[in-house]
């Protein structure tokens, strides 16, 4: 089991299943949402338990996805595909986890949109989209 929270603690969550591989998204939307890029991990929707969901705010950043954040402190927490028939997962920002994580980042995505103020030089696979 893995636990996490927002900055102020109004939202706490636990994941009751194993975590998948993590990726880092460099798309312009993720950069604007977080202030940099978004390292996250996908978890089975049914394995995510949220305490304080009444403090959770959602922003529909496109017709395909919404982004969840704390309405009190603004912490970026969840990336949620809207078509649940195709996507039975929710991505959680790695920085929101409190418990030690055993997996490492596996790849970078949307590097074609990465910011020009940093380089990616960790040797991991880089996907243009």
TrEMBL record:
Keywords from the named record: Lyase, Metal-binding, Zinc
Record's keyword annotation contains Cytoplasm: no
Signal sequence extent: none
All residue ranges annotated as the CENP-V/GFA domain in the record: 2-119
Domain of life the protein comes from: Bacteria
Keyword Lyase: yes
Entry's transmembrane regions: none
Family: Belongs to the Gfa family.
Designated name of the protein: GFA family protein
């Amino acid at each position: 089991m893995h636990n996490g929270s927002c900055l102020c603690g109004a939202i706490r969550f636990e994941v009751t299943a194993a975590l998948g591989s993590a990726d880092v998204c460099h798309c312009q939307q993720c950069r604007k949402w977080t202030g940099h890029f978004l390292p996250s991990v996908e978890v089975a929707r049914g394995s995510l338990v949220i305490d304080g969901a009444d403090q959770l705010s959602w922003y529909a950043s496109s017709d395909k996805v919404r982004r969840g954040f704390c309405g009190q402190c603004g912490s970026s927490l969840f990336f949620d595909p809207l078509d649940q028939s195709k996507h039975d997962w929710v991505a959680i920002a790695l920085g929101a986890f409190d418990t030690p994580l055993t997996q490492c980042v596996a790849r970078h995505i949307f590097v074609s949109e990465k910011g020009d103020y940093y380089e990616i030089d960790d040797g991991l696979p880089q996907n243009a989209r």
